[in-house]
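Hi C.,

You asked whether I'd gotten around to modeling the 475-residue construct. I have! Everything is below, sequence then structure, no commentary in between.
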Amino acid sequence: MSDKKFELSRRNALIGLGTVGLASAGAGVGTSAYFSDEESFEDNTLTAGELDLFVDYWTGANSEAIDGGTTGSGQNDGGVSAQYVLNDVKPGDSGKLVFCPKIVDNPAWLWAGSSGFTQYENDLTEPEAEVDDTGGDPGAGNGELADNIQVTVAYCEPSDDLEGSDPSGPEDFETVRELNNPEDYTLTDLLLELQYGYLLDGYVEEGGEWVPTDDGAYPASPDSDTQTGPCICIEWNVPTTVGNVIQSDSVEFDLGFYAEQERHNENPTSPYATGTTDDLYPPFDSNRALGMSIQGSGGSGSAEAEIHNATSGNTAFPFGNANDDSDNFPADQDVDFTATLDVDSNTASLEVLGSQAGGTDVTASDTDVTDGQGDGNALGSDTEWQNGGIPQTVDVAISARSLNSDTTTVKNLTLNGTSVSPDQLAASAGPEQTYLVLQGIDSSAGNTIEIDGTLNIEGDASGWSGIDGLVINWR
């Protein structure tokens, strides 16, 4: 995937949605081998298969927002071939990007991802200075554009109204299934998730209906002109309630796709996942069954302890409540937590001892981690253990994450009362994630798994987001 970014000009209200980098997998080559003996096994040929990723794309926006920028359509088979540059986006504007991957000609695990993004302040206009004091020219890391762009992500397909004709633009696609987009999901949220990679679901159309593939992998196409799996649509808009805080700001980012063979590869690892280079931190499978987190300042504007990235329920507030956006996680203070998986009862919980830092002790929970529901709430990217229940062993990834904090530290880590090695993780503003994977934990009948530790977030709490804090992923 290319690291080329968007180039953006400076206007009083603008947004650039960037150079869209689409990566391709390697193609197979043909090899011949001839065998013969007195039994006459003749003319035997072994030919390597092919796995080649193509991505068709369509991008668009209202014409006023484009203002000399770049939108369009085409097909990419490696490198950067698509640019999406909007030079004058204002509150009320909107647009759409469509990507249609084709994997020739073997099914594969397919990830969408991003190598990162940067927001720029580009100095402050007079109206913006009244509501924004971050400043800087270009002011890398100080812009607020991506924070104020609402996005919706869905699987989609060409509209039935086309009657077999090729799409001419993103407006010619209709939703097949909307993904679990949290309330007030922003471009920042999407890009941060994509930095760790999003494994796309394997769906194929049968009898006019989209159904899961047998192995869960993205289906193969016979050639680069035939769409077999669903497309991905990203719709965006800037709410009319957004004011001068985005004036003169800009954002650069990239998007990409990565395909990896499915055969003999039952447990793929995200190519986008990041961590330390130390062998103690192996890559963690992106297919998590259960996610837990403690956010420095969540989507509601206050610190949250949650399971399944739920927007309601499965969520608890150790400092304030969902209606008080001033109650962030306390800066530079130690707060203990306990994550528990009870195998016999199929329950999970995350307890946070907020009373240690002037808050209250709270517990977020899920009463059944095998039913495919977050107590009636969205699961986010989680799958739970729906087929056969909790397995005999589980893996756990514990992550310290930082976006705007000086340093996020997770320390004093123990598993069922025994210290792990290392017992401390730290991540600095970047964004950066540092994680520890505990593999092969006994989760057979009668066992309860308990992970204890201490979370400390350093810096100015007013700038923290849902990325600053702790994440515990189970698989």
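If it helps when you're writing up: The chain has two domains: 19-261, 290-474.

Thanks,
B.
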